[in-house]
Design brief:
Helix content: 25-40%
Order of helices and strands: EHHHEEHEEEEHHEHHEEHHHEEHEE
Structural class: alpha+beta
Length: 332
Amino acid sequence: SLPEQTMDTAPAGTRALLRMDVPAVRRSIFYQKLVVEAGRDSGHRALVERCGFDPLDQLEDLVIFVAGDSAELERTGVIGRGPFEHERVAECLRQAAAESESTLERTEVEELPAVKIGRGEGVMAFIGRRGLAWGQRETVVSVIRAVRGEGGRASEDELLNRLYNTIGRDREVVIVSHIPEPWIPALRQLAQSRGEDVARMAEPFFATKAIGLGARVSVGLAIGALFSMRDAESAEILTRTLRAELETLMAQPIINMSPIGPALRRINVNQSGVDVNIAFDLHQERVENLFSLAERFGVTGGGPGAPPPPPGPLVGPGGTFSPTSPTPPASL
């Protein structure tokens, strides 16, 4: 079975990881407004209609990780936790594969039951009754070995593990990631292409070694961001820059008097050694006010008049799988 600690489920070499409390996200105002009311759940609804049940009801925790060296992120994997009904899930996949003229084969990975869809190396392996891993075979093997304690785990990365344990407490969505040094020139160039003001504001962030983001979304919105900087001086510069930008925004009457004003006033920026912590918490009523403001300006793209987009392909670590397309995928 999967270890209780998320960082013990992902393999060593993980450079970025996202964990999502799926039921909490699905009952949040963000999911309802940005996905359901905006008609962006058409693929999910088609899957429920095809399978006769909702597979997401069986998914409690979703983990997506990316592994590789410091510059090249070569492997992507998905780990799921929940009371999975293996036979129903496999049958659902079989129906989807048949409709797309793809193939599904029962197989084993590290002596665990698995399914292989398409012609590539993508597999989904069931780990006990409450776990699954999806990705290229090599990636799934690394997850299974990490779970069994036979291979390295992401928790052995001291920096990433510290960020996860610090920022992930009582959060329903958590992201932790290294910022590889070779990425910095490209990120700096991107910021400069957006204009002088963006480049100026972005520059202090380029001294970030790793970042952790955590959010509670089921009721209201609570967000924490933890930046681990190269040194204390870089942390001090970032803290000073963020506080100055907030003061500048709050000095503008149109922002200060709008629904955005109370949100900005609740943002706290603090420094502790090489860490910069940003946190704010909004009550449900404030979040609803912000959505009303966004809808007034047509930002969310939702509303009863918005036509739902056509069902899109399912993109996974093993490739792309379109449940409605007659063209078979190269791999899943």
